[in-house]
Amino acid sequence: NAGVMQNPRHLVRRRGQEARLRCSPMKGHSHVYWYRQLPEEGLKFMVYLQKENIIDESGMPKERFSAEFPKEGPSILRIQQVVRGDSAAYFCASSVNSGRSTDTQYFGPGTRLTVL
Amino acid sequence: DAKTTQPPSMDCAEGRAANLPCNHSTISGNEYVYWYRQIHSQGPQYIIHGLKNNETNEMASLIITEDRKSSTLILPHATLRDTAVYYCIVPLNTDKLIFGTGTRLQVFP
User: Fold this and answer.
1) Chain B contacts of A59, Cβ < 8 Å?
2) Nearest-CA distance from B18 to chain A in Å?
3) Nearest C-alpha of chain B: how many angstroms from A53?
C-alpha cells in the first residue's frame, strides 16, 4: 500500500524558469493538500484540492503559483518565473473523503526546490 | 483552528517514556487533537489522534484530559530515532493543518 508519492524529490531551477511539482495521493484518497516549508521555518498551508476542484487556496501566493488535481493523474503545483525566495521544501498530503468532520492527512516525502 | 501551546524543547533518555504535553484550552466539542512529527527535514509523519477518549496505537498513546483542554503524547520507550519535532494540532475541519513551532524532542543515549 504505497504512501503519498512526490516527484521529483529534488529540483533545481534558475531564476525565471518554471517549476512543476507532482503529487500522487494514497490509493483511495481524493483530497490533496500542498504545504510549503521555508528554510528554518514551519510548514505553511498553501492549497486544498479535490478532483478537478480547488476547495481552499487561501495560502497560495497571489501570483506565479497555481495548483490542479485533474480527474486523471497526479496533482500538480506549478510555480512560474521562480525567484530565490521560492526555494523551500514543498510537501503534499492526502486524505480520504469519509464524510466525517476531520480526516487524517498523510504526507509525502516532499520536493526540495532550489532556485539558483 | 484551536490554538495549541507546546514547550519548545524536551530531552529524554533512550528507553525511557517521553511525555509531550499540549495545551488547547479553546478546543470545541467536536474538534479532534492530532499529533504529527517531523524527523529532520522529512515529510511530517502522522502519529495519533483522538477526540475525548484516550487512544493507543503501535507508535504512541494519547491521553486527553476530561475537560479536553490539554493532552499528552506518550512514547513509551523512546529511541534515538524518535528525535524529532512533535506537533500538536487541532484542526477545525478537513481543511488546512496549522503547524505551530512544536516541541523539539531530543532523545539521548
Assistant:
1) 96
2) 23
3) 14
Give the number of other Cβ atoms within 10 Å of residue B108's Cβ.
Answer: 11
The helix (run of H) or strand (run of E) holding residue A34 is: strand A31-37
Asked if A48's CB is within 8 angstroms of B42's CB, the reply is no
B34-46 pLDDT tens trace: 999 999 889 999 9
For residue A17, give the 3-state DSSP assignment. Answer: coil
A104 → closest Cβ in B41, B42, B49:
B49
The grid coordinates listed for B44 are 511530517
pLDDT, tens only, A10-35 = 999 999 999 999 999 999 899 999 99
Q: How far is A43 from chain B (nearest CA, A)?
A: 6
Host H or E run for residue A5 = strand A5-7
Strand A111-115 and strand A88-95: pairing?
Answer: antiparallel
Q: How far apart are CA A3 and CA A89, in angstroms?
A: 18
